[in-house]
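Hi there,

I know you've been waiting on this one. I reran it after we fixed the sequence typo, so this is the corrected version. Both the input and the resulting structure follow.
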Amino acid sequence: MRRSALPFLLTLVALSGAGAAQTRSEETFKVGVNVIQVPVVVRDRDGRAVNGLKKEDFQLFDNGKQQQIAAFSVEIPHAESAPDRSLPNPTPGATPAAGGTGVDIPTRFVAYLFDDLTIRDAGYLVRLRKAAAQQLGALQPGDRAGILTTSCRVGLDFTNDPQKLQEAVSQVELHPAPVCRFSQTQELQVELLRNIVGKMSRLPARREIVLVSPGFFVGHDRTSEQDDLIEAAVRAKVVIDTLDVGESVGYNGPDAGSSRNRAPRPGFGGSTAANPLVLVELARGTGGIYVSGNDFSASFRKLATAGIYYVLGFVPDIKPDGRVHQLKVKVENAGKVTVEARPSYYAQPRPE
C-alpha cells in the first residue's frame, strides 16, 4: 500500500445516469457572465438543515452592499437505485440466473484526505484510524471512497472494498516526509485540494471531500488561492467537509473571526502552524460540514450524513478589482436559525 499517490483519482469511472444530487434551479446565464455562486446551509436550533426556503427568504451582501440574487438552486442529496444488470441481455419476463448479482452504480464519491503533515498527536492518530475504519466499513452499496494524505505517501483510488480502505487508513503516519510534486511557492494543502476537485469534477455522482486536519495557515499574500479553491469546488459541485483534529478546539460561532486576520495556533510539536478557521471557511464555502471534538466516531458519522443546501448566484455590479470581497448572507422570516455560507470571493480582474 505504501506507494506514491500521484496516480490517485486519475482513472475515473465513466457512468451515465448515476447522479446522486438533485438540483432545482430557476435561472440560466449566457456564457461569459461573471456569476459568483454562494452555497448556503441554514440550520435550526437543533443543528438540522432547514428545507423549503425560497429565493425571497435570502439577502446577500458583497462588502456590505446588498446584491440582487440572480440565480437560486436547491441541492438535495439522495440515493438512486440502479437496475439489475447481472444479465447482459435480459429477456422480458425471464428469471435471472441463480447466483447473478446486480451491478451497483456509484451514487456518491468521497475522497478522504488526511493531513498527515500537520497531525502531530499519536493518540489522536490511533483513534482517528479506528474511527475512520469503522465508518469505511459501513459504506452503502452506492458509495465509493478513496484515501489520500497531504504527504502523498498513501493513496487509494475510489473503491467500495472495506479491506482495501482500512488497509490504506492503517498506513497513515505522523508527519512523514512529503513526496508531492508541488512548487514551494504554493500552499500544499490548498493546491492538493484543488487537484482533487479538478479530477472529481468529471465524476457523475455526488462528490465530496472529507478533510481531516488541525488546520493550516494560509498567508495573507495567498488569500486568493483559498478563494480560488472554493470557487473551483462550487462550480464543480464538490462539497468539502472538514474534521478539526487540532486539540479538539472548535469554531465557536459567526463572530469568532476569519482565518485571514487571526493568528494561527501552534501545531503539535510546536513547529507547524495550525489554523482551524481555514477548515470552517472551506466547509462553509462549499456547502459542507465542519465538525470538531474528541469523539471522532461521532464526527465521521455526522460527516456521512448529507444535508440540503442552497446556492445563491449574483453578478457583481462593479468591475473586478483584484481584491478579496467579504460575503454575508441573511435569512428573513425563518425563525431562529444559523446561516453557514461562503465567506468571501476573489474578484479576479479579467485580461483586457
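Quick highlight: The radius of gyration is 21 Å.

Best,
R. S.
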